[in-house]
Amino acid sequence: MEKNEKLNISCKCSEVTLDEFIDCMINGNLKRLLRSGEADEIMLNEAWECLYSEYSELSGNRQHKYYFALYKSVYAMKLKMHIAQLILTDPEINLDDLHALGYKGDVKSIVARLKFETIDLQTKEKELQKITDKETGTVTESDFDEWIVSVGKYLGYHIKRKEMLLSEFLYANKAMIRENEAKRKRIKR
Fold first, then answer.
1. Is pTM beyond 0.90 here?
2. How much helix, strand and coil, in percent to the nearest 5, is found in the chain?
3. Burial tier of 31 (Cβ tally within 10 Å: 0-12, 13-18, 19+)
4. C-alpha–C-alpha distance, residues 52 and 24, integer Å
5. Any bridge partners for residue 165, and if so which?
Protein backbone atom coordinates (compact mmCIF):
# COMPACT_ATOMS: atom_id res chain seq x y z
CA MET A 1 0.00 0.00 0.00
CA GLU A 2 1.42 3.36 -0.99
CA LYS A 3 0.62 6.63 0.69
CA ASN A 4 -3.07 7.13 0.10
CA GLU A 5 -3.48 10.68 -1.23
CA LYS A 6 -7.24 10.82 -0.59
CA LEU A 7 -6.97 9.76 3.04
CA ASN A 8 -3.35 10.70 3.50
CA ILE A 9 -2.31 7.65 5.53
CA SER A 10 1.39 7.30 6.27
CA CYS A 11 2.71 3.81 5.73
CA LYS A 12 6.45 4.29 5.20
CA CYS A 13 9.27 4.76 7.69
CA SER A 14 10.20 7.96 5.87
CA GLU A 15 6.74 9.42 6.62
CA VAL A 16 6.41 8.55 10.32
CA THR A 17 8.20 10.08 13.28
CA LEU A 18 9.64 8.00 16.09
CA ASP A 19 6.91 9.28 18.39
CA GLU A 20 4.13 8.18 16.02
CA PHE A 21 5.68 4.76 15.49
CA ILE A 22 6.19 4.17 19.21
CA ASP A 23 2.58 5.15 19.93
CA CYS A 24 1.39 2.68 17.27
CA MET A 25 3.72 -0.08 18.49
CA ILE A 26 3.23 0.27 22.24
CA ASN A 27 -0.32 1.61 22.48
CA GLY A 28 -1.82 0.30 19.24
CA ASN A 29 -2.87 3.83 18.31
CA LEU A 30 -2.91 3.33 14.54
CA LYS A 31 -4.84 6.57 14.06
CA ARG A 32 -1.45 8.30 14.42
CA LEU A 33 -0.78 7.11 10.85
CA LEU A 34 -3.76 9.10 9.55
CA ARG A 35 -2.83 12.58 8.37
CA SER A 36 -6.30 13.70 7.28
CA GLY A 37 -9.72 12.28 6.54
CA GLU A 38 -11.25 9.19 8.07
CA ALA A 39 -10.14 5.58 7.77
CA ASP A 40 -11.61 2.31 8.92
CA GLU A 41 -9.74 -0.33 10.89
CA ILE A 42 -8.92 -2.33 7.75
CA MET A 43 -7.20 0.65 6.09
CA LEU A 44 -5.27 1.49 9.24
CA ASN A 45 -4.19 -2.15 9.64
CA GLU A 46 -3.02 -2.26 6.02
CA ALA A 47 -0.97 0.91 6.58
CA TRP A 48 0.46 -0.57 9.80
CA GLU A 49 1.36 -3.83 8.01
CA CYS A 50 3.18 -1.87 5.34
CA LEU A 51 5.00 0.29 7.90
CA TYR A 52 5.87 -2.61 10.18
CA SER A 53 7.16 -4.65 7.25
CA GLU A 54 9.52 -1.84 6.25
CA TYR A 55 10.53 -1.35 9.91
CA SER A 56 11.35 -5.07 10.14
CA GLU A 57 13.49 -4.89 7.03
CA LEU A 58 15.34 -1.76 8.12
CA SER A 59 15.86 -2.94 11.69
CA GLY A 60 17.11 -6.35 10.54
CA ASN A 61 15.36 -8.09 13.42
CA ARG A 62 14.38 -11.63 12.39
CA GLN A 63 11.77 -11.99 15.15
CA HIS A 64 10.01 -8.88 13.83
CA LYS A 65 10.01 -10.43 10.35
CA TYR A 66 8.47 -13.67 11.65
CA TYR A 67 5.90 -11.77 13.72
CA PHE A 68 4.92 -9.69 10.72
CA ALA A 69 4.59 -12.70 8.41
CA LEU A 70 2.39 -14.44 10.99
CA TYR A 71 0.35 -11.27 11.58
CA LYS A 72 -0.19 -10.85 7.84
CA SER A 73 -1.21 -14.52 7.48
CA VAL A 74 -3.76 -14.25 10.31
CA TYR A 75 -5.17 -11.02 8.94
CA ALA A 76 -5.50 -12.47 5.42
CA MET A 77 -7.16 -15.64 6.73
CA LYS A 78 -9.66 -13.63 8.77
CA LEU A 79 -10.56 -11.47 5.81
CA LYS A 80 -10.92 -14.41 3.41
CA MET A 81 -13.01 -16.40 5.87
CA HIS A 82 -15.22 -13.41 6.64
CA ILE A 83 -15.91 -12.87 2.93
CA ALA A 84 -16.68 -16.59 2.46
CA GLN A 85 -19.08 -16.55 5.41
CA LEU A 86 -20.84 -13.49 3.99
CA ILE A 87 -21.24 -15.24 0.66
CA LEU A 88 -22.57 -18.38 2.40
CA THR A 89 -25.24 -16.36 4.23
CA ASP A 90 -26.48 -14.91 0.94
CA PRO A 91 -29.72 -16.68 -0.05
CA GLU A 92 -28.50 -16.80 -3.65
CA ILE A 93 -25.10 -18.39 -3.04
CA ASN A 94 -22.76 -17.99 -5.98
CA LEU A 95 -20.22 -20.80 -5.87
CA ASP A 96 -18.06 -18.97 -8.40
CA ASP A 97 -17.44 -16.27 -5.77
CA LEU A 98 -16.34 -18.93 -3.29
CA HIS A 99 -14.20 -20.66 -5.91
CA ALA A 100 -12.47 -17.32 -6.57
CA LEU A 101 -11.46 -17.29 -2.89
CA GLY A 102 -9.88 -20.72 -3.31
CA TYR A 103 -12.77 -22.75 -1.88
CA LYS A 104 -13.57 -25.65 -4.21
CA GLY A 105 -16.50 -28.04 -4.23
CA ASP A 106 -20.07 -27.74 -3.12
CA VAL A 107 -21.43 -25.73 -0.18
CA LYS A 108 -21.14 -28.63 2.27
CA SER A 109 -17.44 -29.20 1.53
CA ILE A 110 -16.77 -25.45 1.67
CA VAL A 111 -18.42 -25.20 5.10
CA ALA A 112 -16.27 -28.14 6.29
CA ARG A 113 -13.14 -26.40 4.96
CA LEU A 114 -14.12 -23.18 6.76
CA LYS A 115 -14.40 -25.13 10.04
CA PHE A 116 -10.93 -26.59 9.48
CA GLU A 117 -9.53 -23.14 8.65
CA THR A 118 -11.14 -21.74 11.79
CA ILE A 119 -9.11 -24.20 13.87
CA ASP A 120 -5.95 -23.31 11.92
CA LEU A 121 -6.69 -19.62 12.42
CA GLN A 122 -7.17 -20.08 16.17
CA THR A 123 -3.81 -21.88 16.39
CA LYS A 124 -2.06 -19.06 14.52
CA GLU A 125 -3.80 -16.42 16.64
CA LYS A 126 -2.58 -18.17 19.82
CA GLU A 127 0.98 -18.22 18.48
CA LEU A 128 0.68 -14.56 17.52
CA GLN A 129 -0.68 -13.72 20.97
CA LYS A 130 2.28 -15.50 22.62
CA ILE A 131 4.70 -13.40 20.59
CA THR A 132 2.69 -10.24 21.30
CA ASP A 133 2.58 -11.01 25.02
CA LYS A 134 6.30 -11.71 25.02
CA GLU A 135 7.02 -8.48 23.14
CA THR A 136 4.70 -6.32 25.19
CA GLY A 137 6.22 -7.88 28.28
CA THR A 138 9.71 -6.84 27.16
CA VAL A 139 9.29 -3.82 24.88
CA THR A 140 8.13 -0.69 26.63
CA GLU A 141 8.22 2.99 25.89
CA SER A 142 11.19 3.36 28.23
CA ASP A 143 13.01 0.66 26.22
CA PHE A 144 12.50 2.79 23.12
CA ASP A 145 13.68 5.86 25.05
CA GLU A 146 16.89 4.05 26.05
CA TRP A 147 17.43 3.01 22.43
CA ILE A 148 16.87 6.59 21.28
CA VAL A 149 19.37 7.92 23.85
CA SER A 150 21.93 5.32 22.75
CA VAL A 151 21.63 6.28 19.08
CA GLY A 152 21.62 9.96 20.07
CA LYS A 153 24.94 9.51 21.87
CA TYR A 154 26.35 7.88 18.77
CA LEU A 155 25.13 10.78 16.62
CA GLY A 156 26.35 13.34 19.15
CA TYR A 157 23.04 15.09 19.73
CA HIS A 158 19.69 14.71 21.51
CA ILE A 159 17.12 13.01 19.29
CA LYS A 160 13.69 14.58 19.38
CA ARG A 161 11.28 11.72 18.85
CA LYS A 162 8.51 14.02 17.61
CA GLU A 163 10.82 15.35 14.88
CA MET A 164 13.07 12.49 13.76
CA LEU A 165 11.68 10.18 11.12
CA LEU A 166 11.72 6.48 11.83
CA SER A 167 13.81 5.78 8.72
CA GLU A 168 16.49 8.30 9.80
CA PHE A 169 16.64 6.68 13.22
CA LEU A 170 16.91 3.14 11.83
CA TYR A 171 19.68 4.12 9.39
CA ALA A 172 21.60 5.81 12.22
CA ASN A 173 21.11 2.70 14.37
CA LYS A 174 22.49 0.48 11.57
CA ALA A 175 25.52 2.76 11.22
CA MET A 176 26.08 2.63 14.99
CA ILE A 177 25.87 -1.17 14.99
CA ARG A 178 28.29 -1.48 12.05
CA GLU A 179 30.77 0.87 13.74
CA ASN A 180 30.54 -1.02 17.05
CA GLU A 181 31.08 -4.34 15.27
CA ALA A 182 34.12 -2.93 13.48
CA LYS A 183 35.52 -1.72 16.83
CA ARG A 184 34.99 -5.17 18.37
CA LYS A 185 36.82 -6.82 15.48
CA ARG A 186 39.78 -4.41 15.86
CA ILE A 187 39.93 -5.10 19.59
CA LYS A 188 39.96 -8.87 19.04
CA ARG A 189 43.00 -8.58 16.74
1. no
2. 70, 5, 25
3. middle
4. 10
5. 17
Q: What is the pLDDT of residues 74-108, one digit of tens each?
A: 777 787 777 777 777 776 777 777 777 777 777 77
What mean pLDDT value characterizes the chain? 81
State the DSSP H helix or E strand holding residue 118, giving kind and residue range, or none if neither: helix 107-138
CB under 8 A, 24+ apart: contacts of 48-53: 48/11, 48/24, 49/1, 49/75, 50/1, 50/11, 50/12, 51/10, 51/11, 51/12, 51/13, 51/16, 51/21, 51/24
3 state SS of 12:
coil
Kindly tell me the sign of the dihedral angle through the C-alpha atoms of 59, 63, 65, 67. Answer: negative
